Amino acid sequence: MNMPAAGPNRKAAINWEVLTLEEALESLDPFASELSVDVLICVSHKCRKRRDLAKAHQLLGFVSRNGLETQGPLGNHLVPMLVECGSIASAREIFERSIYPNVHAWTSLISGYVQGGFYKHAWNLYRRMQASCVCINSYTLVALLKASLNLKEVQEAHLEIVEKGFENDLFVGSTLVDSYVKCGGLSEAHGVFSQMPVRSVVSWTALIAGYADNGLSEEAVDCYEQMQKQGFLPNEVTLICILKACATLRALVKGEEVHTDICQKGYCNPLLESTLVDMYAKCGSHLEAYAVLKKLSVQDVVAWNALIAGYVEYELGQEALTCFEQMQDGDVPVDAFTAVCVLKACGDTGASDKGFDVHTEIILKSFESDPFVGNTLVDMYGKCGLLVEARKVFDGLEVKDLVSWNAMLRGYGANYEGTKTLQLFECMQEHGMKPDAMTFTSVLSACSHVNCAQRGLDLFKLMSIDYAIIPTIDHFTCVVDLLARSGQLHEAEKLLGSMTGAQSKEMWLALLSACKSCSELDLGLNCFQHLIKIDPECSTPYMLMANMYANAGRWQEACKIEDFQRKICSEMGASCEFHSLVMNK
C-alpha cells in the first residue's frame, strides 16, 4: 500500500472503509496519534466480519500499546468482535473493564456464553444486566432463550419476554416456540404459536419439528398442511421434519407428495436426501428408496444406513447384506450404526460367516466398546447358534445392561439350553440386575424345555408379585406349555380360564397338543372349540383333534372334523386345502 505523505492532513487521505484488514492494521501505528475512535471501530468491524482471532489480538495489542481507552464506545465494539472471533475470555476481560457497557456488549457476551455452552454464566450475566437497568432488546431475549435448558428456565425467560413487551416480536416468538419444543413443552409451544399475530416459516417449522421429534407425527402432518394452506412455503428443515413424520406413520402417499415438492424446488441437501431414503425404506418402498439413493449427489453412510435399516426392519436380511456389500464396494466408511444393522441382518439370516467378518471390522474400528454394538453381537451369535462366541462377547462387555443379559438369555433359550438359561438368570439376579417382561419370557420358556414345572410356576409368581410385571400373552403361553408338558392339563386349563384379556392361539394349541399326547379327549375338545373361535382357518387344531379321535378308534367323529373344516372354509370363502389326516388304527 502506498502511504500518504507526512503532514497534518495525511489521515484524511486514507479511506479506512475500503482498506483490507491487513492494510488497516498496517496503517494503525504510523497514525497512532491522529486516530479517532471511529477508525478503530471500523477496524474492529473488519476483524469481526473475518472472524480472525489473530488479527483481533493484533488490534488489541495496538490499543494496549497506545494506552487507548476501552471503557467507552470502543469497548462496546471490541466485546462483540472478540466474541465473534471465538475468544470469550478476552471479551469478558474487556467487558469487565467497561464502565458503561451498552446493550450490544451485554448481549454479545451472553450470546458468547451460549455458543460456548456456558449457560449458567449466560443467565448470571443476564441478571446482572437487569440490575444495571440496561434496556434489553429482542436479541438479548433470544440469547436468553437459547441459554434455557429446561422447561422452568424457558418459562422464566417467557415471563421476561412478556414483561419487556416482546411477546409479539416475530423473532422472539419463533425462538420461544422452538425453546419450548426442545424442552418438551409442546402444549406451551402451541399456546405461544397460536397467540402469535404474525408467523413465519421458522415458527411453523419449530412447531412441526416439535411434534415430529416427540412422536406426534399426525399432528406434525396436520400442522404442515395448515402451513401450506396459509401460503407459507416450507424450507429444507421443514421438509426434513415432515419426512420423519411420514416415515413414522408409514404415510407413503404423503411422503411421495413431499418428494415431488423437493424435486420441484431443486433442493440438494445431503441430510434432506438421506431422510428421503429413510422415509421410503421405513414405508416398505425399498425399490424407491434404493432408486433415490443411487441418484444422490452424495451417497454417504447416513443414506446407506437408512436403506440397510429399512431392509432389516422388514426382515429382509439378505437384501440388507447385499446392500451392505454395495456400500463397501463404493468405499463408504461404515459406522457403529451400520455394524448394528448388518449384525441384525446376519442374525436374522443365520449368516454367521458375514457376522464374523463384521465382528473383525468392529474390532479394527474400535466399535466394540459401543454398548449397542456389543449387545447386537451377542444377539447375532445367539441367533446363529454360536453360543460359545456369544458368551465370550457377553463376558467381555465393559458394561452389561438389561439388554445384554436378555440377549444372552434369549440366545440360550432359542437353542434349547434351558439349564444354562436358568443359571444365567441366577447370575443376573446376583449382579443386582432387575429383570423385565422379556427376561421372564426367556426364563419361563427354559423351565418348560427342561421340565421344571414348579420352578416355572414359582418364577411366574415372582414376576407378578416381586417385580410387579403384568403377565403378557407370551408369559401365559409359556406357563400353559410348561403345565401341559408336565401333564398338569387341568391346571393349565384353569390358568387359561382365569385370564381376563385376549387369549392367544399358541396357548390353546400347546394345551391341545398335550391333550393328544395324554389322550385327554374331553379337555382336547374344549381346547379345539376355543381354537376354532380364535382362528377357524388354521388347519393344525383340526388335524390334532382328528388324530385324537382316530387314535381312540372314533372314526366317525374324525370324519366329522374333516367335514367341519371344509364347511368353515367354504363359508368364509377361504382357499384353504385340508391336508390328509394321518390316522393310525
UniProtKB/TrEMBL annotation:
Single annotated GO MF: RNA binding
PPR repeat spans: 102-136, 200-234, 300-334, 401-435
Keywords: Repeat
Statement: the UniProt record of this protein carries the keyword Transmembrane: no
SUPFAM superfamilies, per database record: TPR-like
Keyword Cytoplasm appears in the UniProt entry: no
GO biological process: RNA modification
Gene3D superfamilies listed in its UniProt record: Tetratricopeptide repeat domain
PROSITE patterns named in the record: PPR (PS51375)
InterPro entries named in the record: E_motif, PPR_At4g14850-like_plant, PPR_rpt, TPR-like_helical_dom_sf
Protein name, entry field: Pentatricopeptide repeat-containing protein
